[in-house]
Amino acid sequence: MSGQFARYPSLVGRRVLVTGGASGIGAGIVEHFLDQGAHVGFLDLDATAAAALIARQPEGAAVEFRRVDLRDIPAVRAAIAELRDALGGGFTALVNNAARDDRHAIDEITPDYWDERMATNLRHQFFCAQAVKDDMIAAGGGSIVNMSSNSFLLGQGGMPAYTAAKSAVIGLTRALARDLGPHHIRANTVYPGWIMTERQLNLWMTPEADAKRAAGQCIPDRLHPADVARMVLWLAADDSALVTAQDFIVDGGWR
User: Fold this and answer.
1) Which of 141, 186, 227, 244 is the most buried (most CB within 10 A)?
2) Is 4 among the domain residues?
3) Range of 53's domain?
4) Is 143 helix (H, G, I), strand (E, B) or coil?
């Protein structure tokens, strides 16, 4: 469905940090913020996809990228500091988007693999928030958006470490909302449904799976990164100034 979508004056010039911004949902978020006139720094491991994303932007777009492994917290802190310098100031919006939904069976999981999945899908969300909170305090407020997933709500199997991490995002969000709220820093969770990224289409989309998805959703249309990005824009803008510690599900009503 096509339509006309909101413009947010408060996002013009706002410095935004996005993790996992080179492809998929993250790339959609980066591009939507840039279209609003925001200044965007993003982190990812995929430098090739990041370069392609930047090349697609209009000349003069305020976007900076740093390649980093989000499991390496000292490197993450250094990359955020570099992006802060490159964009000319502190971040007042953070989108913790990066994750990997690799499938894994219960009997295959080792303690090391479990810890790696937590580092990939949960731990960096806290440390990125920790790294930018002083920027937001100095600015008088800010917005943190943490990405969860509707997969654990659906009781989806085949990736217990992933769904455990994604459900833990909710508790993290609410703790951040409570602890940072006195500084007018908001924290909210977005749960994407099955978003039609290139990865999802290549790895898991089949006619049977698509039919099951359509039957499960109240609105059967396929979801795309833009559908998630528009929710994130509102949460980062001043329009949601008193919205915090809340959950927002973007999945077409899949129950």
Assistant:
1) 186
2) no
3) 11-249
4) strand
pTM (2 decimals)? 0.94
Q: C-alpha angle 204/207/212, rounded to 5°? A: 85
Domain containing residue 179: CATH number: 3.40.50.720
The DSSP line for 36-95 is: TT-EEEEEES-HHHHHHHHHHSPTT--EEEEE--TT-HHHHHHHHHHHHHHHTS--SEEE
Residue identified by tokens 């709500």 is 153
Indicate whether 170 belongs to any domain.
yes
Which tokens sit at 229? 């990005």
Torsion sign, CA atoms 150, 18, 103, 120 = negative
Count up the domains in the chain and report the number.
1
Count of all residues that appear for the chain in the document:
255
113 flagged as catalytic: no
Residue type, 27: A
- 255 within some domain: no
The percent of residues above 90 in pLDDT, for the chain, comes to 84
Catalytic residue among 8, 113, 162, 191: 162
Model pLDDT, residue 200? 64
Residue 235 domain flag = yes
pLDDT over threshold 70, residue 170: yes
